[in-house]
């Protein structure tokens, strides 16, 4: 995995201040949403604490920091499109989905169908970290996100989640 490629806006000081002009603010929001999704995908991290001053929100070279209320604004907008969900009442901790949960469920099912894994049981560990899934889009996916995507498939009758011993598994249909 190479270094993250920051968009040009990341080096533009006004990008770190919520803009007043409606059209500019709309473009800024779109860029921030894309940046959050791309950054989390690159880092392969589903969880994001918006109160932490991580490189995503702080450009040390510019000496600029995206304010906390602006971070919340971006995350709430991502939630409206199914790309994020808060995990706490204070809305500081978020799950970020660079694919929506519905998209993840489709990706998982398509893999199961094309790999001949239907009607067999896979552990969640095998799906997220197994030798058979290296190179797949969902390889290394956060287990909580994986479980939520599988629950969508289960509700559609496309799989069954199974608990056995100290493991969890899934059987695709």
Would you kindly provide a brief summary of this structure?
InterPro entries: ESCRT-II_cplx_Vps25-sub (IPR008570), ESCRT-II_cplx_Vps25-sub_N (IPR014041), WH-like_DNA-bd_sf (IPR036388), WH_DNA-bd_sf (IPR036390). By secondary structure, the chain is α+β, with helices and mostly antiparallel strands. Helix content is 39%, strand content 17%.
Question: Can you tag this structure with a few keywords?
Answer:
alpha+beta; 3-stranded antiparallel β-sheet; Arc Repressor Mutant, subunit A; 173 residues; 2 domains
**Secondary structure tally, helices:** 5
CATH architecture of the largest domain: Orthogonal Bundle
Contiguous runs where pLDDT drops below 50 for at least 5 residues: none
- The CATH class of the largest domain, by name, is Mainly Alpha
CATH topology of the largest domain: Arc Repressor Mutant, subunit A
Helix content: 25-40%
* Biggest sheet record: 3 strands, antiparallel
Q: Reading side by side through the largest sheet, how are the strands ordered? A: 1-5-4
Question: What is the straight-line distance between the termini?
Answer: 34 Å
Q: Overall 3D geometry? A: elongated
Number of domains: 2
Verbal overview:
There is one protein chain. The protein is an alpha+beta fold and 173 residues long. It folds into two domains: 8-96, Arc Repressor Mutant, subunit A, CATH 1.10.10.570; 101-172, Winged helix-like DNA-binding domain superfamily/Winged helix DNA-binding domain (Arc Repressor Mutant, subunit A, Orthogonal Bundle). Helix content is 39%, strand content 17%. It contains five helices and eight strands. The protein has helices spanning 22-43, 68-80, 101-114, 124-129, 143-155; strands at 47-49, 58-59, 64-65, 84-86, 93-96, 121-123, 159-164, 167-172. The strands form three sheets. Strands 1-5-4 form a three-stranded antiparallel sheet. The two termini are 34 Å apart. The mean pLDDT is 96.
